[in-house]
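Exam revision sheet. Question 4 asks you to relate a sequence to its structure. Input first:
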Amino acid sequence: MSAKQIIIVVCVVLMSISSASAKAWRGIEPLHSTRADVERLLGRPTEDESYTWKYEFPEERAMINFHSGAPCVEGLPGGWKVPKDTVRDIVVYPAVPKTISELLPAWKEYEQVPAPHIQNAFYIDIDDGVRVSVTDEWVKYVFYGPTAKDNDYRCGEYKYA
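Answer key, C-alpha cells:
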C-alpha cells in the first residue's frame, strides 16, 4: 500500500469515528431511534417509568426519554414532530468520576457556558446535540439530544409574550 493510500484510509477512519460518536450513544440516536431499537440494543431497562427507561451499567447510569406522542401546540416550542416512542433524549451519569479532560476529545471545540448560580459549567456542542454538565472539572452528566440537523422536527417558534 502506498503512503497516499494509507493517508486516505486514516482520514476516512478518523472521519467515521467522529461522526459516529457525535450524535449517538451506544447506537441510539435522539429523534431517530425508537423504543424497539433501544430494547434491541440494550435489553429491558432496569426501571421502566412509562416514557423514561433507566439503565445501570458498571461505568454509567442512563435515562432514555421517549416522546409521548403529544401533538405540537401552535406558538409553544419544546415539542417534537416525531412518532410516539421515539427517543427524545438521553442523559448519562458516570458511575466512576471522570474529569472533563478525560471525557471530551481534545480536538473538538465546545462552547463553555458558566452557570455560577449552581456552581456548574456546561460544555455544549449544538451541532451534535451534546451538553456536558461539569462541577469543579468533574462531569455530572452528559445530555444527548437532537442535533442541529434535526431542526425540521421542532414544533415551532415561541409566539406568546
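Marking note for examiners. Helices lie at 3-23, 35-42, 100-103.
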